[in-house]
Amino acid sequence: MTILDGKKVSNDIKDEIKQQVDKMKAKNEKVPHLAAVIVGNDGASLTYVGSKVRACERVGFESTMVRMSNTTSEIELLDKIEELNQDDNIDGFIIQLPLPPQINTQKVLMAVDPSKDVDGFHPENFGKMALDMSTFIPATPFGILELLDRYGVETKGKHTVVIGRSHIVGRPMSILMGRKGFPGNSTVTLTHSHTKNINQITSQADIIISALGVPNFLKAEMVKDDVVIIDVGITRVPDENSTKGYIITGDVDFENVSKKASYITPVPGGVGPMTIAMLLKNTLLAREQRM
Ligand code: NAP
């Protein structure tokens, strides 16, 4: 069994990006600048955005964190987005989700200039992705592709089962694994909460990408020998023995499933760090496209 070490691979990617940024600096070129908009005080969201800002510092990007209060109106957020769209100094920006209930998320994501949409959530970029055109691929699916690629995990002709159909992970993942090319050329089954007999489906899978957010959902008896497991789930589970008061748990019963798997991502240290590295990669791409 091989651990798909997202921490190591993401560090390799960050080193590669830093080398490119150093070359830009040596030529007196503008370095990539990522902005992150966060509305409200959600603890997990603040942690994620903090990690993204630190990652920018590590590779030499400029970064801006835009904090807005929990009572921000939709119009105020749309105005801020327009400001970022127009700001030549900003190459790419993200709106950290979830947004407070008074704001229509879809409307907000559609207001982002597609050329600065480094999260790849705008319908124009999502459509390009589905049509195999060059675009920003959403960071988490992009990170999973990169992990499969760097470990040389065969995907052609394999049966890939994706669990969860969110717009940011499951749905794009199902499209990308079925597209022509590597990683891709899989036969894909997309499952969700209405799927019947999911155990039967997962036990026929060569590759399982689990993104539902239910701790230890995928058990050893649900998978076949030599399966490849990508665990996207991140759930904070209360734990008295931890200093933080919680532990981060994935969707997969790692202890038992890893005994049957050929490759598996740990949680933490698998898909999570890859997501941030690929956001940086998309931001570098955005800068290059604006040169
Ligand atoms: P989400 O919006 O939370 O939706 C969950 C999906 O799982 C839905 O499609 C739902 O089906 C499906 N689902 C729920 N219970 C199910 C069941 N019993 N059997 C089959 N499918 C079921 O999804 P998300 O935003 O992609 O998040 C999923 C997990 O990934 C969360 O733990 C999140 O924190 C984590 N995540 C991690 C990263 C990372 O960087 N590692 C990035 C993003 C998300 P319906 O559509 O029918 O409701």
Automatic annotation (TrEMBL):
Domain of life: Bacteria
Protein name in UniProt: Bifunctional protein FolD
Signal peptide positions (record): none
Pfam family, one: THF_DHG_CYH
Description of how the protein assembles with itself and partners: Homodimer.
Alphabetized PROSITE patterns for the sequence: THF_DHG_CYH_1, THF_DHG_CYH_2
SUPFAM superfamilies: Aminoacid dehydrogenase-like, N-terminal domain (SSF53223), NAD(P)-binding Rossmann-fold domains (SSF51735)
Tetrahydrofolate dehydrogenase/cyclohydrolase NAD(P)-binding domain sequence ranges: 138-289
Reaction it catalyzes: (6R)-5,10-methenyltetrahydrofolate + H2O = (6R)-10-formyltetrahydrofolate + H(+); (6R)-5,10-methylene-5,6,7,8-tetrahydrofolate + NADP(+) = (6R)-5,10-methenyltetrahydrofolate + NADPH
Positions contributing to NADP(+) binding: 164-166, 234
Domain Tetrahydrofolate dehydrogenase/cyclohydrolase catalytic: 4-119
Species: Psychroserpens algicola
KW Oxidoreductase (keyword) present: yes
EC number, as in UniProt: 1.5.1.5, 3.5.4.9
